Amino acid sequence: LRRCVMICTENENDESFWQTLFEKYAPKLKIAFIYPNEAARGKKLIVSLYAQSLQAEFCLCVDSDYDYLL
To answer: Does pTM surpass 0.85?
Structure first.
């Protein structure tokens, strides 16, 4: 039985990066990706919106690529 986890990334473009990491280091997880709406892009905003909702089955995956573009 595979454990299902919902992952929130900064946007759709980050999914392949995180999918690769989870396949390598947690291959038994079944992952469903979700993304915030267009207005809620960027690491700080996503963390502030979803930090209270985190649990074993709901995770935030953020990176620093967008930070360097600003």
So the answer is: no
